[in-house]
Amino acid sequence: MDYQLAWQNFYQEINRADEDIDLAKASLYYAQAEYPSLNIEEYLNKLNTIAEEIKARLPQRKYPLKVINTINNYLFDDLKFKGNQQDYYNPTNSFLNEVIDRRTGIPISLSVLYLEIAKRIDFPMVGIGMPGHFLIRPEFEEVGIFVDVFNQGEILFQQDCAERLQQLYPKPIELEPRFLAAVSNRQILARMLTNLKYIYLNQRQFSKVLATIDGILMLFPDNPNELRDRGLLYYELDQWDKACLDLEYYLAMLPNAEDADMIRLLLAKIR
Length: 271
Known about the structure:
Family: Belongs to the UPF0162 family.
Number of strands: 7
Order of helices and strands: HHHHEHEHEEEEHEHHHHH
Domain Protein SirB1 N-terminal: 42-193
Pfam families: TPR_9, Transglut_core2
Number of helices: 12
Strand content: 5-15%
Largest sheet: 3 strands, antiparallel
Protein name: Protein SirB1 N-terminal domain-containing protein
């Protein structure tokens, strides 16, 4: 698979109504840019097989807690999926094919796996972009339960989410309603790519940082922070014209940003 074609396929998949985006396909398309021989259909079939096995185990009365327990038992007890506590910042944790093969991942990638399986057994679930830790929940009004896929599908209530938030941050932070709001498919994919962006940045793999930023901008073309970051990266790579375009666009969108003066100085230096 050609690198550019993989990203073109990603763009085609996300260039539709949000509810029609196939999270599994989109995740596998961007993974294909990293793994050119990746067979998309093979991994979609693996998800289908897992879903069929779970469907055969479902009780007759599909109460949410019973369905979640059935999924959890198969994924975490039988198949031994788990959160990668030891090597959290390994980039492989952000590629769905690797998560399926290695049966390990981080909250967001394991949640995508879980969401796609739930979709296949007609049990709709949504992602919850809580700060610092991604959760999911059944897509039913007032259901009041959340699932922490990273921690073996642990079932949480709102008070548990508040306590989890306190554990994640050194300073007291109040659980706001927006922290438990459902996020879109585009937001889920952007969060996955953002994780990769910072991993690659720490590893100084700048070409891969650029690719992930381009992917995020396919999802959200007018994201000013991503345009700024791409412009700064172009500057570091001595790609002056591209740097100017992105940084000028950033200032046009946010002329009073906290770093606006610094960006203006940088643009003057480039010119």
